[in-house]
Amino acid sequence: xxxxxxxxxxxxxxxxxxxxxxxxxxxxxxxxxxxxxxxxxxxxxxxxxxxxxxxxxxxxxxxxxxxxxxxxxxxxxxxxxxxxxxxxxxxxxxxxxxxxxxxxxxxxxxxxxxxxxxxxxxxxxxxxxxxxxxxxxxxxxxxxxxxxxxxxxxxxxxxxxxxxxxxxxxxxxxxxxxxxxxxxxxxxxxxxxx
Length: 194
Prior knowledge:
The structure is a single chain. By secondary structure, the chain is mainly beta. It has a single domain (46-193), classed as Lipocalin (Beta Barrel). It is built from 1 helix and 12 strands, in the order E-H-E-E-E-E-E-E-E-E-E-E-E. It has an 8-stranded antiparallel beta barrel with strand order 3-5-6-7-8-9-10-12. Strand 8 (123-133) and strand 9 form a beta hairpin. Residues 1-27 have low confidence and may be disordered.
């Protein structure tokens, strides 16, 4: 069985500051255009623009519901995953960077991810670069993409995609293929700020 969400030790590389923002939107420079197109084709909304909202804070995604997968997934649309707490912090409006922390159930999936944000007004898209290494020493590159609309008290229509960018050959046949992933949305349409 191929695994999409990894319980790994994650090492994140932080992107360099960009003065002209030309390589930030859309998808940042670490997501190839063909994979960004797969993410969008799978249903993820992408908001462009250079004036995103300040998302600083913690948000509760409940219930996270699988909307679609672009591969032969063992989970069907409608599958409910464990609730997630998502935190955005260290927002820098000058270079459109911020950090992301994700807590799913009682497991800390990632802490201090480096990421970029695009958007306009209250609409945003956050692109997270995940350089991972599994317990066998195999490295791979994934991305998480979050989109939604910031409102009073939380985020409306929060989406979360997790896609493989480069499985580095997948020598043990354990992962999904490059360009494959899942889209999950908050099932009640609103992720409360906590």
